[in-house]
Specification:
The chain has 340 residues and is of the alpha/beta class. It is 39% helix and 17% strand. The protein has helices at residues 16-30, 61-71, 83-94, 107-115, 119-130, 141-149, 196-200, 217-223, 235-244, 259-266, 279-282, 294-301, 306-313, 318-328, 335-339, and strands at 2-6, 34-38, 45-48, 51-57, 75-78, 100-102, 135-138, 155-157, 183-187, 207-211, 228-231, 247-250, 271-273, 288-290. The strands form three sheets. It has a six-stranded parallel beta sheet, with helices on both faces. Helix 7 links the parallel strand 9 and strand 10. Helix 4 runs antiparallel to helix 5 (119-130) and helix 10 packs across helix 13. The protein is globular. The two termini are 18 Å apart. Pfam families: Glyco_trans_1_4, Glyco_transf_4. This is Glycosyltransferase family 1 protein. Residues 14-162 form the Glycosyltransferase subfamily 4-like N-terminal domain. Keywords: Transferase.
Length: 340
């Protein structure tokens, strides 16, 4: 099958959306599917307001349509609600072609965290963007429910997976050896919407380690000089960091899933989090502790069994995620030839 995926989030960005798309695309290609990625790569772009590390690509609907038509796509998936997603949506609608979308981020809460805008105003945009989709892919039951509650009923489940590198067996990260325990880890984009300050200000014993990079890193390093910031890590090094931690602390209130939680679990590392969407759907009493009091959640997570965590994390596979993605697509066969 020839599948066109349009996304405003793509390498060199490092975030859960990019990692999810890369992992699923690799799985689909291994199954013999052909994938066209329409992304900001090689396209004129401007920096995102308040977040210059992210580039907003400028591409007309016609230009995106020419790429999709030349590829001979049999289905279109629009992964993000940014400029490329809007342009692809417009082109598909003008040609009466079906498409699927995905709700990767709690977009209203994300924008509110960065700008102070009323989330309900942002939900109006979310409804407008996703309403024409043949299916909206959501990662958890909680997010499915939120979309339905806001007038978007055509929701399909799209879970996440972990790569084989994330397992309890393997090396520890040298930079995390010899630290005063317990070693508490955060992994993710270092940005205001991730609520990392709540983790770093928690009054708990041990050493706090932050893996990742982003616009808030410099300010957090100044504010919390006792924390260790290791920058972005990948593959073997990231797995080694998970194994070296006594618990992963996930303080975000805006994620729809939280890929780092299942990666940590697959490495045998329990999770502490707030009782919010994402953790509520991913964690069980055996794999994580959720509490409005984050220090209490951390203390509880440290008592959990690592072998149980590893077994639970291993159940999340990219093969299953790719199957769900394929099942949700709405192929349009020869319609593209008539619409091009």
């Amino acid at each position: 099958m020839r599948i066109a995926i349009v996304t405003d989030a793509w390498a060199p960005q490092v975030n859960g959306v990019v990692r999810t798309l890369e992992s699923v695309i690799a799985e689909l290609r291994a199954q013999g599917h052909e994938i066209l990625v329409v992304s900001p790569a090689g396209v004129r772009s401007v920096p995102c307001p308040t977040y210059p590390e992210i580039r907003l690509a400028l591409m007309t609907p016609a230009a995106i349509g020419r790429r999709i038509a030349a590829f001979g796509a049999q289905a279109v998936h629009i992964a993000t609600e940014g400029p490329l997603g809007v342009a692809a949506r417009r082109w598909c609608l003008s040609r009466h072609l079906p498409f699927t979308t995905a709700y990767h981020t709690q977009f209203p809460e994300y924008v509110a965290a960065r700008t102070g805008a009323d989330p309900e105003w942002i939900w109006r945009y979310v409804r407008w963007f996703h309403a024409p989709a043949a299916a909206i892919l959501a990662s958890t039951p909680t997010i499915e429910g939120a979309l339905r509650d806001h007038g978007l009923p055509r929701v399909r489940r799209w879970g996440r997976g972990v790569a084989p590198v994330f397992s309890p067996d393997g090396a520890r990260l040298p930079a995390m050896q010899g630290l005063a325990g317990p070693v508490l880890l955060h992994v993710g984009r270092v940005a205001v919407e991730k609520n990392i300050a709540a983790f770093l200000s928690a009054d708990v014993p041990g050493t706090k380690v932050v893996v990742g990079d982003g616009p808030a890193r410099a300010a957090l390093q100044r504010q919390f000089p006792d924390a260790i910031f290791l920058g972005a890590l990948f593959a073997d090094d990231l797995a080694a960091a998970y194994r070296s931690a006594d618990a992963l602390v996930f303080p975000s209130r805006t994620d729809t899933f939280g890929l780092v939680m299942i990666e940590a679990l697959a490495c045998g590392t329990p999770v502490a989090a707030y009782p919010v969407p994402g953790p509520l759907d991913v964690l069980t009493p055996d794999t994580g502790v959720m509490n409005a009091d984050l220090p209490a959640a951390i203390a509880g997570a440290l008592a959990l069994d690592r072998d149980t965590c590893a077994a639970a994390g291993a159940r999340f596979t990219w093969a299953a995620s790719a199957r769900q993605f394929l099942d949700a697509l709405e192929p349009f066969g020869s319609a593209l030839a008539r619409a091009a």
